[in-house]
Amino acid sequence: xxxxxxVSLFNTFGYLHLPGTFSAAEVERFAAEFDAxxxxxxxxxxxxxxxxxxxxxxxxLRLLTDDRxxxxxxxxxxxxxxxxxxxxxxxxxxxxxxxxxELLPWPLQHITVAVALDRAGARDGCLRFVPCSHRNYLRLxxxxxxxxxxxxxxxxxxxMRWDHNALSVxxxxxxxxxxxxxxxxxxxxxxxxxxxALGVSEPRRLLELSYAAEPRTAAQIHFLRQRDACSGxxxxxxxxxxxSADPALRDLAARWNALGFEPAAPVAAPC
Length: 271
Fold this sequence. Notes:
By secondary structure, the chain is an alpha+beta fold. The protein has nine helices and eleven strands. Helix content is 32%, strand content 18%. The model is unreliable at 46-50 and 265-271 (pLDDT under 50).
């Protein structure tokens, strides 16, 4: 369970590395279910990857009720936070610099909790971060960030680079801190912080759980409705969660239901 120190570290730098969160036996089981989800997606065309919900004892459901995961959004975002996604991410190529480059900045604090299933070193595909670059997140904690110039705009928007690199340097030359991981490590970060994975030579498997703070204003709820409508139902809690015998899982679905989002059958999620 996180205490004041790690939460302050996360808010300050935009990411947090929690080594050895899961045991080797747990990682072995996670990896088997991850690979089964990938194989099922490949058999279905491979264009989209099904989230790992499975049965009532499925991987996604177990992670959501495991306090080593569930305790993170409670401490960082507060009670009542919303589950956004549970996804299998299989990195087969470099992830360029990105973070906080959305057309409409999120009006809510939001985080991704990534469970590493493979070793990733500092030079071969681990996530790396530019500390304190999570401007969009920080402005929600301290409104003075509204006036700060965004010198990192070029890095936040890789789709705008065309034939040159931001800051006239390669992605590898951007000053950043790597977060090398062993299987079972957890990395928590806000998608608003600049992050990349460079030097990916072998596939890297990450189980990602994403959360947002509880919306408290009409504008925040409207943002979620707009994003959901534009994405074709991005925020639809699977029936496996809504119909679970576990009251903690049913509560996750109830938070969305209270906002007018109905549960849906398990849907494909972007890889």
